[in-house]
Amino acid sequence: MKRFFLIVLDSFGIGEMPDAHSFGDFDVNTIGAVSKSDKLNVPNLTDLGLFQIDGVNVDEKIVRGTKHSAAIARMTEKSAGKDTTIGHWEIAGLVSPQPLPTYPDGFPAEVLDEFTKQTGRGVLCNKPYSGTAVINDYGDEHLKTGDLIVYTSADSVFQIAAHEDIVPPEKLYEYCKIARKILVGKHGVGRVIARPFIGESGNYTRTSRRHDFSLLPPGDTMLDVLKATGKDVIAVGKINDIFAGKGVTEFVYTSGNEEGIERTLEYLDKDFEGLCFINLVDYDMLYGHRRDVDGYAAALTYFDQKLSDIIGKMRDDDVLLITADHGCDPSYTKTTDHTREYTPVIMYGKNIEAVNYGTRGSFADIAATVLKYLGVAGDIAGESML
After folding, report:
1. What is the chain's alpha carbon radius of gyration, rounded to the nearest angstrom?
2. What is the DSSP secondary structure assignment for residue 339, as one 8-state letter?
3. How many domains does the chain have?
4. How far apart (Å, rounded) are the C-alpha atoms in residues 243 and 264?
5. Of 24, 7, 19, 33, whose CA–CA distance to 288 is shortest?
6. Domain carrying residue 328
7. Of 103, 230, 286, 322, which has the fewest beta carbons less than 10 angstroms from its beta carbon?
8. In this structure, is residue 104 part of a structural domain?
9. Given 180, 214, 248, which residue is the final one in a domain?
10. Are both 141 and 288 inside the same structural domain?
11. What's this model's pTM, rounded to 2 decimal places?
């Protein structure tokens, strides 16, 4: 009974890609930034081979030799993007040659007029904004008028923030579903995101009841292939939302990294055959976008500590693969957005040889590797590393 545990450390890039400048990124390096923090202590990831991956450039005292116990690789994003949706789709074997639409000047009237008509509520903001800043700047007016705070970012997202006392989360989810039906075709953004918040003027805080409503993947992924052959496809965290439920057989949402790791440990104790696909979002949401280097480093340290428990529960036929979906350099001050970077692969298991697969041409090689290991054939992008 083979089980494959695929963990995405959301936004853990390992260095700038050659085309980063075309995405507005210059001299970005997430791993380089966090390696300078005294909060970083990752002996397990070090022993597995994180710092032996092609192009990883950190202080020599962190590296600790040249040996590694896992298979390692540097992954190149082939898709035209640097966002969560496109990154995960490519990890799952679906390359996106065209970027999803973004709205640096806000959403057009044709979108917002229809949204207002169907929800019966007005709109505030309508421009790219920090998620924490937008509720502080528009929260008071929202409370007075009941208008919804709509904003975006450099990513392909339509975000709706609302105070839970004014718009209960379930009602906010209804509004997001309305927006999702409107935002198709040329306005088919990757995600519509519910951003509920609480608190009083000058002290608003977002809650854990965020919910993502993703665009349906335009083609089959490894999730569909595995499900069609009777394998289990278990989604932990926001994985189910990213794929709009397509190809998923079981899912559980989480409030952040700690709960995501706990759910992973629980699934390690369960019998299933197939894939457990996990997203740990805090690196991106709490530390990358907020440009918190020490927080990012401390979160990696926590994961590394729990990695001992994860590996300790692995069975003889289990494989663990750790990767990322894009970068979000917490030291980059030009923007607070994602950064176009290579991502790591650390693949460990008793059946996995500890070799360096070099630099790969696509995140989709992960999907091909998963299918190969689980003995399933599928018509998706990517070449197996096995």
Report:
1. 20
2. B
3. 2
4. 19
5. 33
6. 3-98+216-374
7. 230
8. no
9. 214
10. no
11. 0.92
